[in-house]
Amino acid sequence: MTVMASTPTVRKVSVPKTWDTRMWQFMRWSGVLLIPLAWGHILIKDVVIGVHDIDLEYVRREWATWYSFWRIYDAALLAFAFAHGMNGLRHVANDFIHNENTKRVVSWAILILWLVISVIGATAIVGGVSK
Amino acid sequence: MKIHLKIKRFNPEKDSKPWWGEYEVDVEPTDRVLDALHQVKWFQDGTFNLRRSCAHGVCGSDAVRINGQNKLACKVLMQDVVKKDGDTITVEPILGLKVIKDLIVDMEPFFAHYRSVMPFFVNDEPAPADGRERLQSIVDRERYDQGTKCILCAACTTSCPSFWSNDEYVGPASIVQAHRFIFDSRDRAAAERLEVLNQQMGVWRCRTAFNCTNACPREIPITQLIGEVKQALATGEIK
User: Fold this and answer.
1) Phi, psi of B4 (to 5 degrees)
2) How far apart are CA B186 and CA B130, in angstroms?
3) Which among B8, B64, B6 is positioned nearest to B34, based on CA atoms?
4) Do B108-235 and B2-105 fall under one CATH topology?
5) Where are chain B's structural domains?
6) pLDDT, tens digit, 9 for 90 and up, residues A73-92
7) Which of A50, A93, B61, B192 has its CA 20 to 30 Å from the CA of residue B204?
8) B82 touches chain A (CB under 8 A)
9) Which residues share a beta bridge with B26?
């Protein structure tokens, strides 16, 4: 008899995923990934190497070693950290903007800014540093 | 002991902005803040207004901000907010809802959000053959037990920074009420409720600030319940 069951009933529910559902999931996963990515970046660049010793030559040498590992690392950092931050900014903007039109304009502006900066960053990572 | 009570007063018919009313009140350490407010209302200034009904932490009508934290005035003892003679207590209306007068706020926007999540049992299937109640297991009943404790005092919703910045947010109290029915194995309208909450102004507006959990006078783990609703939306499973 069901009244004697020892675990809660599990039910499936079908609710179409919205943009915000997916962005919430992205924020969770990118947040988890950012822990090693951002901390690794800070430890290496700010503590081990030091910001004053980082120049284009350093970046060229770094990207040329380990079969592009550092390029992938930097690309992942760009993809997850920047998108995570920009989506956070969209949330903050939506908290304080109450007019629907303004909200839409600001959301699009954030998306375009994210896209432009990401493309510039990706171009630099893919293009590399010329000697 | 004698305490100094500062109450945020506002009468929209007379005042252009809120002001602090200051009162000296004799209290016992075991008195409640509500008793001190009654002293002001009954013996010092009859124009002061507050909302309260049962005065025993059940009806949820006297949620106010005491020393900057949302509490029920009828549940907070003096000894928990003042230590010695002359100490000051500040009492303000809860934030994010329009002040009607003094400590009384307009609760209608709060209840509009509450109604939006269908806070009632839905099941159109035929009743059991014996004509009695729909039985469920003890664990199924426990699954939504926390949500049943809510007294709709609005202490959680009006402590939420997301609600302060945008009152279109459905708010923690409504999500708790939705949780109570979504996780009830006998209910059949979980999908409809989840659809209401699956919007930017639904559960996704929650930033897990935990203010709601701290503010709840019934000690409901509200942020956890909101997380469970998010999980149900993300996984498509109610468990």
Assistant:
1) -105, 115
2) 16
3) B64
4) no
5) 2-105, 108-235
6) 888 888 889 999 999 999 88
7) B61
8) no
9) B2
Write down all domains in chain A, each with its CATH number in brackets: 21-127 (1.20.1300)
The amino acid present at B137, given as its one-letter code, is: S
Cβ-defined contact of A13 to B238 (cutoff 8 Å): yes
Q: Which fold has domain B108-235?
A: Fumarate Reductase Iron-sulfur Protein; Chain B, domain 2 (1.10.1060)
Angle at alpha carbon of residue B140, lines to B139 and B146, rounded to 5°: 85
Q: Residue B7: which of B133, B92, B124, B130 has the closest Cα?
A: B92
Q: Which residues partner with B77 through β-bridges?
A: B32
Chain B CB contacts of A11 below 8 Å: 185, 190, 237-239
ipTM: 0.74
**Cβ <8 Å between A3 and B137:** yes
How far is the C-alpha of B233 from the C-alpha of B224, rounded, in Å?
14
Instruction: Read off the tokens for A26.
Output: 């992205």
What is B2-105's CATH number, 3.30.360.10, 3.10.20.30, 3.20.20.70, 3.40.50.2300?
A: 3.10.20.30
Distance (Å, whole) CA A24 – CA B13:
45
B198 touches A: beta carbon within 8 Å: yes
pLDDT tens, position by position, B50-97: 999 999 999 999 999 999 999 999 999 999 999 899 999 999 999 999
Its pTM stands at: 0.87
Decide if B135 and A96 are in contact by the 8 Å CB cutoff. no
| C-alpha dist (Å) from residue B213 to A64, B57, B64 | 51, 17, 16
* Partners of residue B23 on adjacent β-strands: B5
> Any chain B CB within 8 A of the CB of A67?
no
The 10 Å CB-count burial string (b at 16+, else e) for B140-164 is bbebbebbeebbbbbbbbbbbebbe
Q: How far apart are the first and last CA of chain A?
A: 76
Q: How far apart are the first and last CA of chain B?
A: 52
Q: How high is the mean pLDDT of chain B?
A: 96
**Cα atoms in the 13 Å half-sphere on the side-chain side of B98:** 5
B133 touches chain A (CB under 8 A): no
